[in-house]
Amino acid sequence: MNSGLDEICTSSYKYAHIYAILPGYCIMPNSTEDQALRRDAIRELLLQGPARTQQYLVDALVSRGLVATQSSVSRDLREIGAIKTARGYELVGVDRPDDKPMVDVAPLLRDVSPAGPNLLVIRTAIGAAQRVALALDRSNWPEMVGNIGGDDTVFVATASSHAQKQLIARIERSARP
C-alpha cells in the first residue's frame, strides 16, 4: 500500500523534512549511529568556517547523503556545543587564525573578570594593556563591541551578557599553554 512512498523515501533524502511529517508512510532513520554521523559531518563543516544558517547545514548534510531536518540540526548544534555568532554557527574551543593575536599576548594577561553584563575588565602586566587591546582588535572576535586600553587594564564592551561569557571563554582558552 505504501510502497510508492517507501520507494521515494529510500531513494531520495532531498525532501526528508517532508517525509518526517507523514507518519506511518516513511520512517526517518534516527539511530544513534545516524546522529553520530550527522554530528561528525556538522563538526567537519563548521571546522571549515561558520555556517550562516541551519538550512545551509541541512542542505550540506543532505548533499552528503545524510538525513537531516532543521530540528535535528538544531539539536545537533546544541549537543556538540556550537554557538551562534554574528558570522553564523561556530564551534567553541576551536583554534582559528583570528585567535593567534591573543595567543601571542597570553603571557601578559593577569586577570579577566566581568564588571556588569556588558563590560569585561582585563588586568595585564604593567605597560602591556595597549598591546593586549591591539591584539583584541586584531582578533576580530564577534563578541566584542570595542575596547579601551590603559597602562595595565583593558575595558572591553560586549553586546550582551552571553557575548561576555563567550569572550571570557575565548580569552581563557587562548591563555592556556
In words, what does this structure look like?
The structure is a single chain. The chain is α+β, with helices and mostly antiparallel strands and 177 residues long. The chain has 2 domains: 3-91, Arc Repressor Mutant, subunit A (Orthogonal Bundle), CATH 1.10.10.10; 97-175, Gyrase A, domain 2 (2-Layer Sandwich), CATH 3.30.1360. Helices cover 47% and strands 18% of the residues. It contains 8 helices and 6 strands, in the order H-H-H-H-H-E-E-H-E-E-H-E-E-H. It has helices at residues 3-11, 16-19, 32-48, 54-63, 70-80, 100-105, 129-139, 161-175, and strands spanning 82-85, 88-91, 109-114, 119-124, 144-149, 153-158. The strands form 2 sheets. It has a 4-stranded antiparallel sheet, with helices on one face. Strand 1 and strand 2 (88-91) form a beta hairpin. Helix 3 (32-48) packs across helix 5. Residues 1-27 have low confidence and may be disordered.
Task: Summarize this entry quickly.
With 177 residues, this protein is an alpha+beta fold. It has helices at 3-11, 16-19, 32-48, 54-63, 70-80, 100-105, 129-139, 161-175, and strands spanning 82-85, 88-91, 109-114, 119-124, 144-149, 153-158.
List the helices and strands and how they pair.
Elements: H1 3-11, H2 16-19, H3 32-48, H4 54-63, H5 70-80, E1 82-85, E2 88-91, H6 100-105, E3 109-114, E4 119-124, H7 129-139, E5 144-149, E6 153-158, H8 161-175
Antiparallel strand pairs: 1-2, 3-4, 4-6, 5-6
Helix pairs in contact: 3-5
